Structure formats: C-alpha cells, structure tokens
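Researcher: Here's the sequence for the chain we discussed earlier.
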Amino acid sequence: MDRLTAARVFVEVVASGSQSAAAERLEMSRAMVSRYLGELENWVGARLLHRTTRRLSLTGMGEELLPRCRAMLALADELQSAGQRGSDLLSGTLRIASSQSFAQAWLARAVAAFVELHPGVAIDLQVSNLAVNLVEERIDLAVRITNQLDPNLIARRLATCHSVLCAAPRYLARHGTPQRPEQLSQHNCLTYAYFGRSLWQFSHGGEPIGVPVGGTISANESTVLLEATLAGAGISLQPLYSVAAQLRSGQLVALLPDYEVEALGIHALYGSRRQMLPALRALLDFLVERLAAEPHWDRQLGA
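Model: Thanks. This is the structure I predict for it:
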C-alpha cells in the first residue's frame, strides 16, 4: 500500500465530506478512494470513519490520526518541493505491468530508451497476462490491450492494436486456405483466451460476423500460439506488432484480407492523475510520442 497516498485520501475525504467529492478532487475513481481508506484502516487496525448513506464522521481513532496525517503530508510536500528545487532530474523506481507479448515486442526497448534519457529512473517491469491489482501489487502503470476498461482506473489511450489472421505456408499446403470466415470452422484454430476463445469477430462491408472456432491448442499468451502457428499447427489471430516481420519474410501468410478483425486499444492504466509521480508522467508522454512515431501501430498491414 502507498501509505502516503492513503493518508492524502483520508484527509481529502474528511475535508470534502464524502468519498465521491474526494475522488473528484483527487482525480481518482471512487472505488480507488474506498480501497485506499480500507487499506489505511487495515494498517492502523481500527475504523477511522463512520459511514452512512447521508454523512461521514470521524471515529475516535480517526480524530487522533487526522492531524498526524496532515502533518505528514505537509512534511512530504515540503520535501518534494525541496527536491524539485535542487534538481531537475527525474528519479525513482516505476513498477510497470504488461503482457509478455507487448513487453517482448515493444515495451522493453521503449523503457530501455527512456531510462537512457533519464538515468535516475529505474523500471521494474512485471510481465503477466493477469489483470493485477494496482494498489495491492504497488503497480504504478499497467499497459493493457483491451476494449473493456476497468472503470475503477484512469486510462490513457496509447495506440491501436490491429490483429491479423495468419498461418504458416506448410499448414495451408496441407489443409487449404480459407476464403471466408465461415470456413474457419473446418480448420484447426489456435485460440487465445483473452481475445475470444471460441468466437472470432470480423466485419465485412460494415457488417459484423462472428465465427465459432476451435482447435487442438489454446493458451493465455499470444507468443505461445505464435510459436505453434509458425510450427504449422494451425491458424491463429495475432497482434500485428508480433507478426509483422514473419509476414514480410513469408514465414506466415495473412488470411482473409478483405475481412477486418476487431481492433483493440492499447491503454495505460493508473490510479490517480493528481498523485502521479513526475517520472511516471514523463514516461507516459514518452510512450505516446514513441508509438505515434511508428505508423504501423495505427494502420492495417499494407495500408
């Protein structure tokens, strides 16, 4: 738990009179405010606020803790101001969560370039396909590729992730090349749990097409399915950032070029704008600018 942020949330809730008002002032979701309060109460081992549908009031422990939290925050702000006056260099450690495929294909090199520019910053890159709890795992930033965002977190769109249906030439030589999405039901389709395990979505002429698929291999990481696809095991949907090189070299063949696969947003998720570290804000701007400089992120292959 970030105890300094939890203390700031507690003080702001008391000053604002409600969790909703505090969330707005802190530019934080109401669920995140509630979570910080709960974590702070668990830490001190006592309830700090009486919560009713009409009003909030301090408990005895809350009254005792409030002035101490205010003093701690004042000292923290003074220390931060002194540090900013003494140096313009960014510093600190940022914990970043990302999927393996995105971290391997792009993010690792991007953060390497960032820390080269800002040697006072260290990056702790946590690679997992699970949706981590930012507060509990002390994650400063989570990069997720999805169109279903967590309403409890603040999101900044970084780019668009296009996907492509592909297979190895050896698979197509044995089983033929599908010409329509409906024919995929006759093929061994390697499914990715987080994209739609049994129903792949396409559009053609503005009309949506959902195709049920199945096969002998499924996985929760697209890089695993990519290796199986390269080995000729079947057809898979892959992020364009993962397979652009293999498509250009001929190791893989793009299928159904007249049908569009649903594009996903690449989002940076974090808990609060107001409490954002300077290094984190700089990293976010850096990632946006770096992705914008690589045009293949926002267009289909060959467009």
